[in-house]
Design a protein that fits this description.
- By secondary structure, the chain is of the alpha+beta class.
- It has one domain.
- It has three helices and eleven strands.
- Strands 5-1-2-3-4-10-6-7-8-9-11 form an eleven-stranded mixed beta sheet.
- The protein is globular.
């Protein structure tokens, strides 16, 4: 599918839909190199247009993936009905996630290890930059989050190089780490 969203300046997403919940849609992303590249979760109400197979390049994309033996799949047990449930599911299945707040700033994302959602509905994220872990948590309102990415090439490379996070001291309201 080719998915466009209502949020200004957001990326168009080419992906296979692998799950739909009350709040979130889970996609198996297709990279510009026509390879499967991790998963994205986007808010259902932000989707403006979803074109099934008529987009230019769809047939070639499907064929290239099949010839490479790449198979679409969904992480097991994903909760797409609530943001807290989605965070818990993604954290269980993947070591890192990218968190987007595109309505506030479409050019910023935070990458790190999620440490749950607080009672005040804020995501606690221990961020990683190019192999450098923060020693504090950043906090984002869950209502500001528009997209999560997990399991993609860049995010996996960050985890391979940076390893697991060190113990964290608390919260940080400073600027985000740079976006890839």
């Amino acid at each position: 599918m080719r998915i466009s969203r209502e949020i200004d300046c957001t990326d168009r997403l080419d992906a296979y839909v692998v799950g739909i919940g009350r709040k979130w849609v889970l996609l198996h992303a297709i990279s510009d190199e026509l390879r499967l590249d991790g998963h994205s979760a986007v808010r259902l109400h932000d989707i403006k247009c979803a074109t099934r197979s008529g987009w230019e390049g769809a047939a070639m994309t499907h064929r290239a993936l099949a010839l490479r033996g790449e198979c679409v799949h969904s992480p097991a047990g994903g909760d797409l009905d609530s943001t807290a449930g989605l965070v818990k599911s993604l954290t269980k299945a993947f070591p890192l996630m990218a968190v987007y707040i595109e309505k506030l700033d479409p050019h910023v994302c935070y990458i790190g290890r999620a440490h749950g959602v607080t009672r005040k509905k804020r995501l606690r994220l221990q961020e990683i930059g190019p192999a450098d872990w923060a020693f504090t948590y950043s906090m984002n309102k869950t209502t500001d989050i528009t997209r999560f990415d997990v399991g993609g090439g860049y995010i996996d490379a960050l985890h391979m190089v940076g390893g697991d996070p060190p113990d964290c001291r608390g919260t940080n309201s400073g600027p985000p780490m740079p976006r890839p």
